[in-house]
Design a protein that fits this description.
Blueprint: E1 4-6, E2 12-18, E3 27-29, E4 35-41, H1 46-62, E5 67-71, H2 73-79, H3 81-94, E6 110-114, H4 121-143, H5 151-162, E7 168-172, H6 174-179, H7 183-189, E8 197-204, E9 213-217, E10 219-223, H8 232-236, H9 243-257, E11 263-273, E12 285-287, E13 293-295, H10 303-316, E14 322-327, H11 331-337, E15 341-346, H12 349-362, E16 365-368, H13 373-377, E17 386-387, H14 395-407, E18 412-416, E19 422-423, E20 434-435, H15 440-453
Parallel strand pairs: 1-6, 2-4, 2-5, 5-6, 9-11, 9-14, 10-11, 13-17, 14-18, 15-16
Antiparallel strand pairs: 3-4, 7-8, 8-11, 12-13, 15-18, 19-20
Helix pairs in contact: 1-3, 2-3, 3-4, 4-9, 7-10, 9-15, 10-14, 12-15
Bound molecules: ligand BES, manganese (II) ion and zinc ion.
């Protein structure tokens, strides 16, 4: 664990170098023993600081360090409170280990901060710590094996984490969701022995009468593909198909812990996409909660089915004024943008701009896809209002537009984290192989920004 506080004590000293000739992110030892210099380069960003802190902490822990002292003055002067926060976050995430079900040695590590006395360092560190713990919570859930994380167990885990923080939690069972007419959700949810759940988390930090912003996260606890069964390679990482759900819950936890004055409702449709005697098959027609009919052309395009009903639920039942959905939705997005950039599809320029602005503060990368009218034609069906598979490629965009049909006129942004939620090896110094916690910090920053608006 990393403890972040103002205190003088250390095995190692970490020093920041800004400017100078050394390449950003390079590390070198100082003249005195046990001093490590972190080079942030000539034009550092908070993200450079986050990466450098992670790299440095990993390096000294490798050498057996249990404590280190970091003078944050230079980062605070160059980058403000965001730089300080990034250092703390990078350091803490560098110590993340995925959960294990065996005895193993824990190596405690404490990083002490000194300097930047003109800032309220303890307050900044406390806020950052809540956000970083939320990222670790999302990683833990996403890394958890499928047999230990059925939809009901996911719901229970979220409830246990959220309720003590003053978040209202409602878990709808399969009878309640059926009564609401969530036929698209059930097309997937009924494919497994473990029944589906609709998880609703309400953080009411804002004005009583202010409509909530909805964060809708894909909660496919396992995506086998259904009768359109995935390949052996494809099946391997599909426990991570609930990463969007984990992200929205984690963001709510961080908002609640930091008492952010905003109303946010997270909605997580939690299901497994498996094969059973009653599973959907290609050609089926299902009726969604909105009344729109959907032709199932591929049972592996399940995320958009459950999200369609969850978006309708968020708007109709929770009165959401804005909707942000986040999902490991398409292989196409991962192919197009890779492991460090997630895709966006949106019907609203200001909301999309707010999300990109939030990302500039969180250090995550997003790229907005175009939505030319031709793309919408690709998800038309001759026999239903929509098809769940594009007739002409463009998988990331068409999946997004499918969801947009359920948002209607409500400002909406879709985040496709299929490429960024899970990595076979770290692509950033603050990542480890497996779940990354993608989206958590950006969703937190987005809601923080919206809180400041009112
Ligand atoms: N969960 C997958 C998308 C995915 C693929 C996430 C790889 C992470 C890594 C999603 O449910 C899916 O199977 N999508 C299909 C859609 C297609 C059948 C229209 C895809 O992308 O192939
Ligand atoms: Mn699928
Ligand atoms: Zn999926």
């Amino acid at each position: 664990m990393v403890k972040l506080w103002n205190q003088e004590a250390a095995d190692w000293r970490l020093e920041l170098e800004i400017g100078g000739d050394s390449a950003p992110l390079s590390l070198h030892t100082g003249a005195e023993g046990r001093t490590l210099i972190l080079c942030l380069g000539k034009d550092p960003s908070a993200e450079t600081a986050r990466r450098a802190a992670a790299k440095a902490v990993a390096a000294i822990r490798e050498l057996g360090a249990r404590t280190a002292l970091l003078d944050v003055d230079p980062a605070a002067r160059a980058l403000g409170p965001g730089g300080l926060s990034a250092l703390a976050q990078g350091a803490k995430l560098a110590c993340y280990r995925q959960p294990a079900w065996k005895e193993r040695e824990e190596k405690p590590f404490t990083l002490y901060f000194t300097g930047a006395q003109w800032l309220d360092v303890p307050a900044i560190l406390a806020e950052t710590d809540a956000v970083t713990r939320a990222v670790c919570f999302a990683r833990d859930l996403t890394n958890r094996p499928v047999n230990l994380l059925t939809p009901a167990m996911l719901a229970q885990s979220m409830k246990e984490a959220a309720e003590p923080l003053g978040v209202e939690v409602q878990i709808l069972d399969e009878y309640q969701t059926r009564a609401l007419g969530m036929g698209a959700f059930h097309a997937v949810g009924d494919s497994a022995g473990h029944p589906p759940r609709l998880i609703v988390l309400r953080w009411k930090g804002g004005k009583e009468d202010a409509a909530p912003i909805a964060l809708v996260g894909k909660g496919v606890c396992y995506d086998a593909g259904g009768y359109n069964l995935k390949s052996a390679a494809g099946l391997k990482t599909m426990r991570a198909d609930m990463a969007g759900g984990a992200a929205v819950c984690a963001a709510v936890l961080a908002l609640a812990e930091n008492h952010i004055p905003v109303n946010v409702t997270a909605v997580v449709p939690a299901v497994e996409n498996r094969i059973s005697p009653d599973s959907m098959v290609p050609g089926d027609i299902v009726t969604s909660m909105s009344g729109k009919t959907i032709q199932i052309n591929n049972t592996d395009a399940e995320g958009r089915l459950i999200l369609a009903d969850a978006i309708t639920y968020a708007i109709q039942k929770e009165g959401a004024s804005r909707v942000v959905d986040i999902a490991t939705l398409t292989g196409a997005c991962a192919n197009a943008l890779g492991h460090l950039t997630a895709g966006l599809v949106s019907n609203d320029d200001p909301l999309c701009a707010a999300l990109l602005e939030a990302a500039s503060r969180s250090g995550e990368q997003y790229w907005r896809f175009p939505t030319f009218p031709e793309y919408a034609k690709m998800i038309e069906s001759p026999v239903a209002d929509l098809s769940n598979q594009s007739s002409d490629g463009c998988g990331a965009i068409t999946a997004g537009l499918f969801l947009g049909a359920f948002a209607g006129d409500v400002p909406w942004v879709h985040m496709d984290i299929a490429g960024t939620a899970w990595v076979d090896r770290a692509r950033r110094e603050y990542q480890t192989a497996g779940a990354t916690g993608a989206g958590v910090t950006t969703l937190y920053q987005l809601c923080l920004g919206l809180a400041a608006e009112v």
